[in-house]
Design a protein that fits this description.
Elements lengths: L1 H20 L42 H7 L5 H8 L23 E2 L7 E2 H34 L13 E3 L3 H30 L1 H39 L8 H6 L17 H25 L10 H32 L3 H7 L1 E3 H7 L1 H8 L11 H9 L4
Antiparallel strand pairs: 1-2, 3-4
The structure holds protoporphyrin IX containing FE (HEM).
Protoporphyrin IX containing FE (HEM) binds next to helix 5, helix 6, helix 8, helix 9 and helix 10.
């Protein structure tokens, strides 16, 4: 019965369609259906929906389920909870993934950032402070050194070399120093390219080459870091004793070492300026750079390696290595172009007596008085070298 009715209905429809297709052209088209007449699901202006869902009692503290009943599709309670840094459930072990249940970090305000979630706050510190001000600081110090070199010039040796050589650095001291320098230069170059390379290298070499370069340098940085850590410890232990504060250091500092008067203030094996670099640049900043770097390498035992730890380690690392770089720029200048004869001392181990008299008179006095041996390194190589060195 139903089948028969369906067949009849289908035939009627076909007949209707055929009649419509064969209708004469003169028959007027039906008037356009007004928009308001469209039936089915319609949208509504949310601002006109009354009563407003926010008038619900306890609207602000609704759970996502409660909110869905009054405002379907409004997931604000869930996102507010995600944004608050509350850890949700995760089946991953805490030891391996300490933050697996935290999608967005909680709000913090780092020095120099707005109050915002920690990832964004770190981003603001890096991009708005560390990069522009750190870069400017390096350029300003570099400019000051160049200006000083051009205007004041290097500290020359006052007088002719005597030919009498004194052992300033033993083979061990020099190897410790230069091993540390090799790691330091690798870290400094790779670190500078990673931080500032996109401003001065990327436009020149293009993204492909720059990407490869930074990838290689990033690995060189991670490799040189632990080498620097070990050699830094050796340098600290090796040079610590003669960098301890001594009588005359304060006078040296107050008179700026006499660098502008042209008459150097007497000092022991190391002057007070070198001691400031040793304790400030090598000891405090060096250890801070190493510890924060090892944290970023996940090599420090007992730390929870989550994003917050990494962000703080990165900011501490950046600030301390920028300051250390600045101090080391001064050290490198004074150890090469700035002080005639200093580099030879660290290269060969020996300095002329006249150099020692001019720069480290109290040290020379101790040697002359026999309190410090003029020749400290034992062994054949050292003796051969000493053959050249007339004992003072
Ligand atoms: C290219 C880089 C460097 C050069 C050319 C250089 C050069 C020198 C020179 C010539 C001396 C001997 C100064 C004197 O006779 O009183 C010296 C001493 C010293 N350097 Fe360097 N240096 C460099 C990098 C470093 C670095 C990276 C460190 C450690 C982080 C460092 C730590 C020391 C220490 C501890 C001394 C012993 C004197 C003191 O305590 O101030 N140097 N350096």
């Amino acid at each position: 019965m139903i089948k028969a009715f369906s067949v009849v209905a289908a035939l009627a429809l076909c007949w209707g369609a055929a009649v419509a297709q064969t209708a004469p052209a003169s028959v007027a088209a039906p008037p356009a259906v007004p928009a308001t007449a469209i039936s089915g699901i319609q949208s509504q202006n949310i601002l006109e929906v009354k009563p407003d869902a926010s008038e619900e009692p306890g609207y602000a503290s609704q759970t996502n389920g409660e909110r869905a009943k009054v405002q379907p599709g409004n997931n604000a309670p869930m996102w507010r909870q995600v944004n608050s840094g509350v850890a949700g459930y995760s089946s991953l072990p805490k030891s391996e993934a300490p933050e697996a249940g935290v999608l967005i970090q909680p709000f913090v305000q780092y020095p120099g950032s707005r109050l915002t979630n920690a990832g964004e706050a770190w981003h603001q510190v890096r991009n708005n402070w560390l990069i522009p001000y750190g870069g400017s600081l390096l350029l300003i110090v570099l400019g000051a050194i160049v200006l000083f070199h051009v205007k004041v010039g290097p500290i020359k040796v006052h007088g002719e070399p005597t030919g009498r050589l004194i052992e300033r650095f033993s083979v061990f001291e020099r190897s410790a120093h230069w091993a540390n320098v090799a790691a330091f230069i690798t870290l400094a170059v790779s670190g500078l390219v990673m931080a500032f390379g996109k401003f001065f290298l990327l436009p020149v070499m293009g993204a492909t080459l720059f990407g490869w370069l930074t990838y290689v340098l990033k690995n060189a940085h991670n490799f040189a870091g632990p080498l620097f850590a070990v050699s830094l410890l050796v340098v600290i232990v090796t040079f610590m004793r003669d960098n301890l504060p001594a009588k005359g250091d304060l006078a040296w500092l107050l008179k700026g070492g006499g660098i502008f008067s042209g008459h150097e203030i007497d000092s022991g094996r190391y002057n007070a300026g070198e001691k400031v670099v040793f304790w400030g640049g090598v000891f405090v900043l060096g250890i801070t750079v190493v510890v924060s770097g090892l944290a970023m390498d996940k090599l420090l035992p007992g730390l929870s390696y989550d994003r917050g730890t990494m962000q703080i380690a990165h900011m501490v690392h950046s600030v301390s290595n920028l300051l250390m770089l600045v101090m080391m720029m001064g050290h490198i200048y004074l150890g090469t172009l700035g002080t005639k004869g200093a580099y030879e001392g660290m290269k060969t181990g020996y300095v002329d007596e006249i150099w020692a008299e001019q720069h480290h008179k109290l040290w020379l006095d101790d040697i002359k008085a026999g309190r410090i041996p003029a020749q400290r390194s034992p062994g054949a190589a050292a003796s051969a070298r000493a053959g050249n060195a007339v004992q003072v």
